[in-house]
Design brief:
Strand content: under 5%
Helix content: 55-70%
Number of domains: 1
CATH architecture: Orthogonal Bundle
Structural class: mainly alpha
Radius of gyration: 13 Å
Shape: globular
Distance between the termini: 34 Å
Order of helices and strands: EEHHHHH
CATH superfamily: Flagellar motor switch protein FliG, alpha-alpha superhelical domain
Number of helices: 5
Length: 88
């Protein structure tokens, strides 16, 4: 049986086991040019992309999202919207 993993304070668990968003990862993606960040995020799951975009500034998230293929960006946007609606 797998052990339960609790993210460190101020971080969230992504859909990739043992990968957390917040802190250092947020700083890395925030410091990275949007074009390079988009290339990396294209290889990640939508759930992980949503978590990472939620950990950077709105401006940075918009820059990155604009560089993803339109259909993928729309799906990620729907996921973000669904998360906001379920949080209310």
């Amino acid at each position: 049986m797998a052990a339960s993993v609790t993210p460190p304070a101020g971080q969230r668990l992504t859909s990739t086991p043992g990968v957390f968003v917040g802190g250092r990862l947020s700083k890395i993606f925030s410091a990275m040019p949007a074009k390079e960040a988009a290339k990396i995020l294209e290889q990640m799951t939508d759930a992980d992309v949503v978590a990472i975009l939620g950990s950077v500034t709105d401006r940075k998230a918009a820059e990155i999202l604009s560089l993803l293929p339109a259909q993928r960006a729309a799906g990620i946007s729907k996921s973000v919207l669904a998360n906001k609606v379920s949080d209310q």
